[in-house]
Amino acid sequence: MTQSKVIFLFLSMILSIACQAQVGLLDKDFSNKNILSTIFKGEFQEETNAQKWPVCGVQALEMSSYLDWNRNAYTLVDTILTVQLDTSICKIVILKTMQVDSSGWIQDCNGCPPRIGVAYFVKYNQHYDLQFFKLNLTVNGHGFNIPKSGLKQIGQSIYAFVLTEEVMQDQGREYWFDMSNEFHEFLSFDYFSLSTAEPSSIIENSIEIVQTENEYFDLILNSKMTPTDVFDSEKEAQIKPVKTKLIYNNTDMMQHVQIPFGYSIQYK
């Protein structure tokens, strides 16, 4: 190999390392504008805090109601979660790509659910580097409002990213995503619902996380069904929840678990 080629390869390596270093964001630079500019091409709109970015190819066909006349999409930062997972400090950025009209005007209405995405940054030295990005985790919410986000520990060094819908008209749902598996959804359930069965009943669901002797946790679904015609508080207190164990593991993950309604009422 000639000396000129060696010099060229050395310079190429230096430039490559320099370019990669620029991807990281310092704590002081971790703003909505810089986060969006790191992930998307295009321009940041100060007036709406949205990144306007071009969409091409097949992706444009899937996002028709999210594009303006020139096939630009509009994405905002909704929430930034800072957590320490084991020895790493991470930032989880929840994004929302909004429905727009042909001019790019963002639609803020009940019938306009945004696409919810996630960007996962890990801190190395003084920089946060983008490790994972998913534009369309799920479609949910209305206008600028999306479900509340949070984290739940479900095993040793295993965490779930959870989206919890707001209860509206006696309906609500939680969605659980495995952070160790590219935010794959493994569980969803109604946590509060008004049954249409006769007699009508209020059904309350919640997840209890129980640590086991092995590396996994047990997810226990607590389901309580209370008839709406129960007015006696003492009698209502005797209605016990039905517990269902949902064992989590990496090889047999639950897919969109639909919790059946119509549990029997247990009186003392």
Q: What is the topological layout?
A:
Layout: H1 3-21, E1 25-26, H2 32-39, E2 43-45, E3 50-54, H3 57-62, E4 72-85, E5 88-97, E6 115-124, E7 127-139, E8 148-155, E9 158-164, E10 171-178, E11 184-194, E12 201-211, E13 217-227, H4 233-237, E14 242-247
Antiparallel strand pairs: 1-7, 2-3, 3-4, 4-5, 5-6, 6-7, 8-9, 9-10, 10-11, 11-12, 12-13, 13-14
Keywords:
268 residues; mainly beta; 2 domains; seven-stranded antiparallel β-sheet; 4 helices; globular; disordered N terminus; disordered C terminus
Task: Walk me through the structure.
The chain has 268 residues and is mainly β. The protein folds into two domains: 123 residues, no CATH class; 113 residues, no CATH class. The strands form two sheets. Strands 1-7-6-5-4-3-2 form a seven-stranded antiparallel beta sheet, covered by helices on one side. The longest helix is centred in the N-terminal third of the chain and has 19 residues.
The radius of gyration over CA amounts to 23 Å
Average of per-residue pLDDT values: 78
What is the domain total for the residues?
Answer: 2
Helical proportion, percent range: 10-25%
- By helix and strand content, what is the structural category? mainly beta
Query: How would you sum up the major sheet?
Result: 7 strands, antiparallel
| Percent of residues in beta strands | 35-45%
Shape: globular
Q: What separation lies between the terminal Cα atoms?
A: 86 Å
State the helix count.
4
Low-confidence stretches: 3-22, 248-268
Number of strands: 14
The topology string of helices and strands comes to HEHEEHEEEEEEEEEEHE
Strand order of the largest sheet: 1-7-6-5-4-3-2
